[in-house]
Amino acid sequence: MNEDAEAFLRRAIALAAEARRAGDPPFGSLLVGPDGAVLAEERNTSIADDDITAHPELKLARWAARRLDAETAAATTMYTSCQPCPMCTGAIARSGLGRVVFALSGEQLDALKPGAGWPVVPQDGPALYDEASAAVAGYY
C-alpha cells in the first residue's frame, strides 16, 4: 500500500468518526478518480436519514452510476473504512467501479461487535421458473 492509499483510507476512517459523532454507525467512504483526485465523499447516515440503506458505499455507488461514464467508473477506486456489506458490494459492482480498498475486514468488524454477525434470513426457492423467466427473458 502506498502513502496516497493510506491517506485516502485515513480520510475514510475520519468520515467514519464523523458519522459516529453525529450518532450514526461509524462508516465512511470516498471515491478517487483515475487522476488521483477525490470525486466524492460520504459517511453513514442510516439513523439521521431513518434509512437502513444509507451506507456510504451505497450512496457513492449511486453517485458514480449517475455521474461517471463507464470508462471513468472502471478507473475509479473506492476507499472505505470497512469492507462493504453484501448490499453495498452489489451496488458497487452494478455501478462499474473498478476497485475497493478497505481498512477493516468484515470479519474484523464482526469481532468488534457484541453478538457478532448478522442474522440469517431463511430463503426458499427457486420456484415458478416458467413464469418468472418469462418476465426476464430477452431483457439482457
TrEMBL record:
CDD domains: nucleoside_deaminase. GO terms for molecular function: catalytic activity. It comes from the Bacteria. Pfam families: dCMP_cyt_deam_1. Residues 3-120 form the CMP/dCMP-type deaminase domain. InterPro entries: CMP_dCMP_dom, Cytidine_deaminase-like. Signal peptide: none annotated. PROSITE patterns: CYT_DCMP_DEAMINASES_2. This is tRNA-specific adenosine deaminase. It comes from Phytohabitans suffuscus.
